[in-house]
Amino acid sequence: MKENFEKYLTTNQFAKMYNINKKTLIYYDEINLFKPYFVKENGYRYYSIHQGSLFEVILILKQLGMPLKAIKEYLKNRNPEELNNILLEQKENIEKQVEELNRINNIIKNRLNILDSYKDIKIGNMQIEDLEEEYLVLSSNMESLDEINIGKSLCEYVSKMYNNKIYNGFCLGAMIKDKNIIEGNYLNYSYFYTKLEKKPKNIEYFTKPKGKYLVFYYKGHWTKFYEIYSIAKDYLAKNNLKISGYSYEEYIKDDATAKTEEDYITKFMIQIS
Q1: Cα 3 from Cα 262, distance rounded (Å)
Q2: What is the pLDDT of residues 203-259, one digit of tens each?
Q3: CA distance 1 to 59
Q4: Which long-range contacts (CB under 8 A, 24 or more apart) does 88-97 make?
Q5: Backbone angles phi, psi at 252, to 5 degrees
Q6: Beta 243-253 vs 206-208: how paired, if at all?
Q7: Nearest C-alpha neighbor of 47 from the set 3, 7, 2
Q8: 3-state DSSP call for residue 173?
Q9: What does the pLDDT average to over 55-64?
Q10: Phi and psi at residue 24, to the nearest 5°
C-alpha cells in the first residue's frame, strides 16, 4: 500500500510541535506508551496529526506528576469517564498546591516588608503613636512559669502555628502585663503571639486594642531588656503618662538576619493612657 507521507509527521516534526526532545518519542515507542502511526522499512517513524490529542493527554498527565506506568495503564483501557476522574483528582491536587504557593508567597511578601522596614528604624528613639487594632493568635498563658515550661509552651505554640498553617511571615512576638513592667519583672511574659493580617473566622484570637502606644526599638540581647524598659518608664513619668495594658515585643531582627544575639532588634509597643 502506497502511503501519502505528506499526511504524516516525522519524529523531529512531531517533537518540535510539542517542544520536546525526539528521544522522548523514541523512548515512549520503546516502552509501548506512545507508538508512531507506522514505521517505514528503513526504521523511520511517522506520526499522524490525529495522534496529537492522545499525546496531549499524555503530556498533561505527566506534567501533573502521574508516573509513566500509571499513564500506560490508563491508555490500555481509556474512556471518557476514567479520564474525567483522573483530571478531577489532579485538579483538586493542583488547587491545593496553588493555595499553598499563595500562602508561601504571602509569607515572602510579609518578610520582605519587614526587611524593608529596617532602613527606617531609629534605635532607642521613643515616640507616642496611635496604633490600629490588630488580631493576634496567642500561646497558652505562661506567666510565672519556669524556663523549662516556657520552652515547652513555645514549642507547642510554634507547632500549632505551622500545623494549622497560621504562620504568615510576621515576627514572633511576646506580651507582658502592665503590672509586671511596673514592678520590673520584664522577663515574666504572659503570651507568645503571631500577628494576623485580618480578623480570623475559624480560630481563637486576641484583639490588640486600638489606641496610644509608646513605640521604640532596642538593639541587643533579650536578657538586657531591663535597660530599655527603665528608660521607657522614665520617659512616661516625665510626660505624665501611664502604662495601661500589655507591652508587645516583636523580634524583627533575629537569627534569620543577625549573626549574634547582640545584633537582634526588637520593636516595643507599650499601651498607655
Answers
A1: 80
A2: 899 999 999 999 999 999 888 899 999 999 999 999 999 999 999 999 888 777 778
A3: 32
A4: 90/61, 90/64, 90/66, 93/64, 94/64
A5: -85, -20
A6: unpaired
A7: 7
A8: strand
A9: 91
A10: -65, -45
Alpha carbon of residue 224 to chain centroid:
32
- Note whether 55 and 33 are within 8 A (CB): no
Q: Which amino acid is at 240?
A: N
Strand arrangement of the beta sheet that strand 45-48 belongs to: 8-10, 45-48, 38-39
Q: Are 269 and 131 in contact (CB under 8 A)?
A: yes
Alpha carbon of residue 170 to chain centroid: 11
DSSP annotation of 235 reads: H
- Asked whether the beta carbons of 179 and 165 are under 8 A apart, the reply is no
- Would you tell me how many other CB atoms lie within 10 Å of the CB of residue 122? 9
Q: Which three cell numbers stand for residue 17?
A: 510541535
136 CB neighbour count, 10 Å cutoff: 18
Tell me if 187 sits within 8 A of 146, measured CB to CB.
no
Task: Determine contact, residues 127/215, Cβ cutoff 8 Å.
Answer: yes
Helices (H) and strands (E) in the chain, counts: 8, 11
Dihedral sign of CA atoms 231, 234, 238, 239 in order: positive
pLDDT band at 2 (very low <50, low <70, confident <90, very high): very low
C-alpha cell, 150: 516556657
Query: What DSSP character marks residue 58?
Result: H
